[in-house]
Design goal:
Blueprint lengths: L7 E3 L25 H12 L28 H8 L2 E5 L5 H10 L3 E7 L17 E10 L4 E6 L2 E6 L1 H7 L14 E5 L8 H17 L6 H19 L1 H30 L2 H27 L6 H21 L1
Antiparallel strand pairs: 1-4, 2-7, 3-4, 3-7, 4-5, 5-6
Helix pairs in contact: 6-7, 6-8, 6-9, 7-8, 7-9, 8-9
């Protein structure tokens, strides 16, 4: 369903109060939220009736990029090949709310950067606490009621009132000097819902390409060396700085490993690969907590056993998938 009125538009007919999020965001996951970009895609793919498991092979190609792990994202080409989802950049040449009324009214979604300060689903972390750049997907917009239905993190949500005005910078929140945020059009009018066998076959072909892009040197070993160098620095800067560091490092490795573990089971029924990646995920969870305590107490942390587990698990997991591919 697309446009309802000239000021109330909706692409997908969803109810935030009853939205069933995908099992990749289930509460029993080690990392319920991964990163803002992959999280929205897992739910958008799920919401249009497709299986997001098929798009996960890209996680095996992540690398440690000197001060962060790869901020892993699904390639747009694979969204098209697997599901018929077409993603194109939106040229934000007028207020975003005007683009949203037009494009969502035509049945398209809009992926856009947003400030988590105004996103109530981040209550307890960023909401009305700190300004943090994140990504949402706009699905429904009611201009008169100032109400927005949007995908973010692990689900589908609604915001309204001041949060709406500030998100779109309208009314008293209007800021003529504001730099437009990056946005993308997500066209879902040509969705292809493939059966499992075809989806698995296409996904395995994508896996071959991503395995060929694996780092030439052990990425966990590079991360280990950086951790040993960074711990005194993190201790000096304090817990708030550590949390920002940990999101880009430990969390990205742990979340990618958990996705790789679940993918190995889905695509190959391979318990050995799944166990190896699960070892990495669990070790990363242990590290993020122990490191936080060490930084807060300003003391050293012997993380060697944790890194041993992450290095061996990552190597065994990727090698097992390579044998399948």
């Amino acid at each position: 369903m697309a446009q309802l009125t000239s000021t109330h538009v909706r692409a997908l007919e969803l109810d935030a109060s009853a939205y069933p999020r995908h099992m990749l965001h289930a509460e029993e996951r080690v990392w319920v939220e991964k990163n803002c970009y992959i999280d929205i895609w897992l739910e958008v793919i799920h919401a249009v009736g497709c299986d997001p498991m098929a798009v996960l092979p890209f996680v095996v190609a992540i690398d440690f990029e000197d001060d962060q792990w790869t901020f892993f994202k699904p390639p747009h080409g694979e969204l098209w090949e697997l599901y018929g989802i077409d993603v194109q950049e939106l040229n934000v040449w007028r207020p975003l709310v005007e683009h949203a009324i037009e494009h969502v009214g035509a049945g398209k979604l809009i992926s856009t950067e947003a400030d988590a300060w105004w996103l109530p689903d981040t209550s307890g972390t960023d909401y009305r606490t700190q300004h943090t750049k994140t990504t949402i997907v706009i699905n429904e917009l009611d201009l008169e009621r100032q109400r927005l239905g949007y995908f973010h993190n692990a689900g589908y949500h609604v915001l309204e009132g001041e949060d709406f005005a500030r998100t779109f910078r309208i009314g008293e929140a209007k800021d003529p000097a504001f730099m437009p945020l990056f946005a993308e059009l997500v066209k879902v009018d040509r969705i292809v819902r493939r059966d499992r066998s075809e989806l698995v076959a296409r996904s395995r072909e994508a896996l071959k390409l991503h395995l060929a892009r694996r780092p030439a040197t052990d990425p966990v070993a590079k991360f280990r060396a950086r951790w040993e160098r960074d711990l005194p620095w993190l201790t000096e800067r304090g817990l708030g700085f550590y949390h920002a560091w940990a999101f880009g490092t430990i969390r990205q490795l742990g979340a990618a490993a958990e996705l790789a573990s679940l993918y190995a089971t889905w695509a190959f029924g391979d318990d050995s690969a799944a166990e190896a990646f699960a070892q990495v995920s669990q070790a990363a969870k242990t590290m993020i907590l122990k490191a936080a305590r060490a930084v807060n107490a300003k003391r050293a942390l012997d993380a060697a056993p944790i890194f041993d587990a992450m290095q061996s698990g990552w190597a065994r997991g990727t090698d097992a998938l390579a044998r399948h591919a």
